[in-house]
Amino acid sequence: MKALIKIGGTLLDNADSRHDIARQIAMLSATGAQVTVVHGGGKQMTRFLEERGIQSTFVRGLRVTTEETIDAVLKVLAGTVNSQLVAALGLAGTRAVGLTGIDAGLATAEQLDAELGFVGRVITSDSGLLNTLTAAGFLPVVACVAGGLQGEVYNVNGDSMAVAVASGWGVDRLVFMTDVAGVLDADKQRIPLLTAEDCLDLIRTGVAAGGMQAKLNAAIEAVSGGVREVRIVKGSEPDIVNRVFAGEELGTKVVKA
Length: 257
Ligand SMILES: Nc1ncnc2c1ncn2[C@@H]1O[C@H](COP(=O)(O)OP(=O)(O)OP(=O)(O)O)[C@@H](O)[C@H]1O
Ligand SMILES: [Mg+2]
Description:
With 257 residues, the protein is of the alpha/beta class. The protein contains 9 helices and 14 strands. The strands form 3 sheets. An 8-stranded mixed beta sheet has the order 5-8-2-1-11-13-14-12, sandwiched between helices. The radius of gyration is 17 Å and the shape is globular. Bound molecules: adenosine-5'-triphosphate and magnesium ion. The site of magnesium ion has 8 residues, from helix 6 and helix 8.
């Protein structure tokens, strides 16, 4: 079984939470599953930029990315956040390897929209490296950074990155671990099941905003592109990885129709 788990930045910001998730992923990996992890780091990025007096601006849930921001993306996402997670997964007993989409053409992007600067849309994903690593027992940990056709570097939303890598690699399971119980409705109640059409409605009506808008857009792309379902769950719930992979109906399930 090939599984791609995307971990949101908030879950990795605290050492206890990071180690807890790492232990859970190590347990899944020990069952023989081929696991690749993609991670975000929105919270860490905002804090790093704030400390340098830079205010973050978002358009449709995506961070407007200047030259200065892309440099921070490399330092924070590809640097600190990635290495800390690799260290935690290593301690948990896996042979984790830190990567970005730049490595071996794992994710090649082009500019998504001039308004967003260096925000990339992944156009190709070469999963050769993932196959090589997972077949040899390594656990790839991918920061959401992609390479461009001219050697430039793009900031890719973590969820879009996860979907691009998942589609290229041909996963059986795609799970987004985040900091909320799932997709919440206007009354803040968890929605157990959504179709791609429902997701568009939630975005249109503004119920799903910010990071969730980006997440649902990514989920729509995944299910439209042949991924059977995308599962969005709260990463801090006890034993979450095991429960999700055992088939428990947790969080929000997104399907095509
Ligand atoms: N309808 C909604 N239901 C749930 N969360 C929502 C909704 N609308 C907006 N959100 C926001 O979306 C956030 C989740 O997206 P966010 O991008 O912050 O996390 P992430 O994708 O897990 O992490 P990262 O961006 O670091 O990878 C929630 O914390 C919440 O504030
Ligand atoms: Mg996000």
